[in-house]
Write a structure and sequence with these properties.
Strand content: 5-15%
Radius of gyration: 30 Å
Number of strands: 7
Helix content: 55-70%
Shape: elongated
Number of helices: 8
Length: about 300
């Protein structure tokens, strides 16, 4: 009789252990889904053990709190982006008026010596403030999802030629030699023309600010498997390897550039990356200091739409 009772107890313990193992596997599966980002899942444990039930209850409470915190953070971030977008827009209006009056004074007043120098300095600072305001406004607009790309077909070669011509005086002033490796016939892409123009302008401007010492500005168009790549390169000082991972972060300028070149504002590359990604492309950078630095971005070919 005692033997049968002992066997029954062992069987009950074994069944209980197997059931607990099954429940733990279910908990493990739910935990994997939560870690993968599915925060709507909750733990369920069918057991009479009070300590385990308390543990599951507290885990679910923790998930509820985390989900509420994450939701609040996202809402706060959306409000911040919206506020920044409105603020940047309101900020641009008085700056535009200020620049207008300053240019009018420059044209109408015949200033000489220090007065002329002071006015030029004010104009230069106001222009920089206008550029900074414009860049903040575009970045805020992109992040608030108010700048959805208008995808159309257009000739990429023609656009590159237009953009490079717009930098004619800066290129001539810095004695830089353009090296253009472009197709001889129209090269049609499917992208947002205005966004692509801004990307090109930002990357060319980046060369003129940071890579001008190499005296070369190269632009090449090459065809990939399903897209088109644009390479913009220079032979300047280059970028240290430890700075490349942060290069596309907002306001990042690097130790070397911030100390020796105050022209940039650290927004151009961040804007370019977001505009490229909005169109379904990617952007990369490869640099060998004092040899060659290349920024490459991709667009969809009209053939492979």
């Amino acid at each position: 009789m005692m033997l049968y009772l002992l066997i029954a107890v062992v069987l009950l313990l074994l069944i209980s252990h197997l059931r607990l193992l099954r429940e733990m596997k279910r908990l493990e599966k739910v935990l994997e889904e939560v870690c993968a980002g599915n925060l709507s899942r909750r733990f369920r444990l069918y057991t009479f053990q009070p300590h385990l039930r308390t543990l599951v209850t507290r885990l679910n409470t923790l998930l509820d709190q985390f989900q509420d915190t994450l939701k609040g953070k996202r809402e706060a971030e959306e409000r911040r982006k919206e506020m920044l977008s409105h603020l940047s827009h309101d900020f641009r209006t008085p700056i535009t008026a200020l620049l207008g009056y300053l240019h009018m004074l420059e044209e109408q007043l015949e200033l000489e010596g220090k007065k002329a120098s002071y006015l030029k300095t004010v104009l230069k600072k106001a222009d920089k403030l206008s550029t900074l305001s414009r860049d903040y406004f575009q970045l805020a607009k992109i992040e608030s999802r108010d700048a959805a790309p208008e995808m159309t077909e257009f000739d990429l070669v023609n656009l590159i030629q237009e953009v490079i011509l717009s930098f004619y005086y800066q290129i001539k002033e810095k004695e830089i030699q353009p090296v253009l490796r472009l197709p001889t016939s129209p090269f049609i892409v499917y992208a947002d023309r205005n966004h692509t123009e801004r990307i090109l302008a930002n990357l060319i401007s980046n060369v003129l600010i940071y890579g001008a010492s190499g005296k070369v500005l190269g632009i090449e168009v090459r065809e990939g498997d399903h897209n088109v790549w644009v390479d913009i390169w220079d032979d300047g000082k280059g970028i240290p390897a430890d700075e490349i991972p942060n290069l596309f972060d907002r306001l990042y300028r690097g130790k070397t550039t911030s100390q020796h070149n105050p022209e940039g504002n650290g927004l151009g590359l961040a804007i370019s990356k977001k505009l490229v990604e909005q169109q379904g492309g990617s952007i990369t950078v490869h640099s060998i200091p004092n040899q060659k630095t290349t920024f490459s971005f991709s667009l969809r070919s009209a053939v492979n739409r």
